Every structure is written in C-alpha cells, then in structure tokens.
Amino acid sequence: MISGSDALGMAGVAGMFIGIPITFIVSILCALFAYIGVVRFARMEKFGEAFAFGEIKDKIGEIGWGGNYFISLVVLIIAMWIIGFIVGILLLIPILGWIILLASIPFLNIFMFRYISNLYDSAGTA
Predict the structure, then answer these.
(1) Which of 20, 77, 97, 98 is disulfide-compatible with 93, CB 3.0–4.6 A?
(2) From the CB of residue 17, how many other CB atoms can be counted at a distance below 10 Å?
C-alpha cells in the first residue's frame, strides 16, 4: 500500500520533469567535451590533457561550436544510429548475428574516432 499526500507525489513528478532535462543537457555538454578530450589524450600522450577543459573549450571554439562541431556530431550520431539499427536487425540471425556484432564493434569505434580526429584536425581551416 502506498501512503503519503498528493502534494508529495506532485513534488516528485515536478522534480522529475525538471531533473530529466537538466540531466540531458549536462550529458550533452559532457559528451561535447569528452570527444575532444579523448583525441587530446591520444595526441599529447598525457592523461591530464583529457581533462584540460580550457584547452578543450578553445579547440572546440577553433572548430566552431554551432557550425562545424555540433552539426558534425549530430551527423555522426545519426550515422551510428542507422548502422546500429542495421546491426540490430542482423542480430535476429541466431548465431551469425552475434558474430557480426562482435566483428563490427571495432570497425565502428575506429570509424567514429577517426571521424572525430578529422574533425579535431579541421580546427582553423574553415
């Protein structure tokens, strides 16, 4: 049996409707910085470079926040969704589907981070 007042229930629902969009926005901002952080870490070969937020922000500014960077990441996400949908359909094949999934994951990761690396290199060329 659930007990409590309706006001507490409405407060919980209101908190959820405020918390979910805030969580979504924060996760997008983290992803924007994480992609460039991974490339900086790989290029500089120093773990601390992945968390150099000032330099990451400057690099994203060189690429272009709204124009090149954000649109390029949206294109990447859409492409990965389409590929994921296709691989998901192939998973319906009993054993071969899992083999295709396991074989395709490294190639998809290489494609994704090569795309982001090329985006990193495009800073200042536009």
Answers:
(1) 97
(2) 9
Residue 124: its pLDDT value, please? 66
Phi, psi values for residue 123, rounded to 5°: -60, 125
Cα→Cα distances 78→3, 32, 62, 115, Å: 44, 16, 24, 13
Q: At what angle do helices 96-121 and 6-44 cross, to 10 degrees?
A: 70
The tens digit of pLDDT for each residue in 29-56 reads 898 899 999 999 998 989 998 899 999 9
Query: SS3 of 88, please?
Result: helix
Q: Which two tokens stand for residue 102?
A: 């396991």
Residue 55 burial (C-beta neighbours within 10 Å; 0-12, 13-18, 19+): middle
Phi (first) and psi of residue 84, to 5 degrees: -65, -35
